[in-house]
Amino acid sequence: MWNWFNDHSFEPNKDSTLAVREFGIKSDYPKLTAGTFPADEFDCWEFAGISLATLEGIGVYRAATEELQSYLLITAVLEEDSREVIHFNQAKVECKIHGRSRAAFVCQHLNLEHPKGFEEAFETYKGMGLSEDDDFQAWCDECEKVRIRNNGWNEYAEEFARIKLVCEYCYFELKRFNIA
Ligand SMILES: [Zn+2]
Ligand SMILES: [Zn+2]
């Protein structure tokens, strides 16, 4: 299965594999354009090789478990102080859905069933850099009312909000759904 076809993959770079599909369309090679098809280990290395050439990669890494073999294309070596490496080092939360990411905090009321508003400690966008003392933090409209009535976060407002830990990706899903 090509990663661009995999709805359960949240790899930030997954769409770059669409370039291999483009190449497959131009070369009239169906296995580069079909999302999924039967293949053995040797096929996979060959497709990884085609991807390496198409995307100008520098190597391929295979991660294997008993049921699954993933072929990961390495495209760059990052500087130790690059944004991506800093993000990775800050990643402390292991989400069942999204894997490892930075921590984010939301009130107990926010979910993906009913939109409840989305107040943030500061304006955020996906993938933004955070300083060491900053965290993604958001709460619902009801919590905002309680917070204002209490002149800011105090014991009572915090008890009402019962802030919980979520992953960065869950945070932005909640933001998209709950924002007015
Ligand atoms: Zn709330
Ligand atoms: Zn998550």
Record keyword descriptors for this entry:
180 residues, alpha+beta, 2 domains, four-stranded mixed beta sheet, two-stranded antiparallel sheet, 7 helices, 18% strand, elongated, binds zinc ion
How would you explain this protein's 3D organization?
This protein has seven helices and eight strands, in the order αααββαβββββααβα. The protein has helices at residues 18-26, 30-33, 41-54, 83-90, 141-149, 155-161, 168-178, and strands at residues 59-64, 69-74, 93-95, 99-101, 103-106, 119-120, 136-139, 164-167. The strands form three sheets. The chain has a four-stranded mixed β-sheet with strand order 6-7-5-8. Strand 1 (59-64) and strand 2 form a beta hairpin. The relative contact order is 0.12. The model has no long low-confidence stretch (mean pLDDT 91). The structure holds zinc ion (2 copies).
Brief overview, please?
This protein is 34% helix and 18% strand.
Question: How does the SSE layout of this entry go?
Answer:
Layout: H1 18-26, H2 30-33, H3 41-54, E1 59-64, E2 69-74, H4 83-90, E3 93-95, E4 99-101, E5 103-106, E6 119-120, E7 136-139, H5 141-149, H6 155-161, E8 164-167, H7 168-178
Parallel strand pairs: 5-7
Antiparallel strand pairs: 1-2, 3-4, 5-8, 6-7
Bound molecules: zinc ion (ZN) (2 copies).
- Overall 3D form: elongated
* E-strand count: 8
Measured by DSSP, the beta-strand proportion falls in 15-25%
Low-confidence stretches: none
Whole-number tally of structural domains: 2
Helical segment tally?
A: 7
**Strand order within the widest beta sheet:** 6-7-5-8
Main beta-sheet strand count, sense and barrel state: 4 strands, mixed
Helix-strand pattern, N to C?
HHHEEHEEEEEHHEH
First-residue to last-residue Cα separation: 37 Å
